[in-house]
Amino acid sequence: MSYPDPFDQSLPYEVTNLINDKIVLYLRAIEVVNVETQGTFAGTIAIIIAENNEAVKKRRRKNEAVTE
To answer: From CA 25, how far away is CA 19, in angstroms rounded?
Structure first.
């Protein structure tokens, strides 16, 4: 079994693409198909993703302000 290189800069982009292209699409589909049982789960994951995206945006803005 091979493990990813922890210094590989492309890894975060691959994970982001996987989340946006596969997981979010899946969550939207299960929410539409079975909102009664999956709606809460999908909604919770959507909130977590949105919070993490906001944290990343703030970190990027902070880093850009420091480098200027």
So the answer is: 9
- What pLDDT, on the 0 to 100 scale, is given for residue 27? 86
Is residue 42 within 8 Å of 23, Cβ to Cβ?
Answer: no
Structure tokens at 55: 């944290």
Q: Are 27 and 45 in contact (CB under 8 A)?
A: yes
% the chain with pLDDT above 90: 3
DSSP 8-class letter at 9: T
Amino acid at 22: K
Mean pLDDT within 24-45: 88
Angle between helices 35-67 and 24-33 (to 10 degrees): 150
Q: Is 34 left (phi over 0), alpha (psi -120 to 50) or beta?
A: beta
7 has pLDDT over 70: no
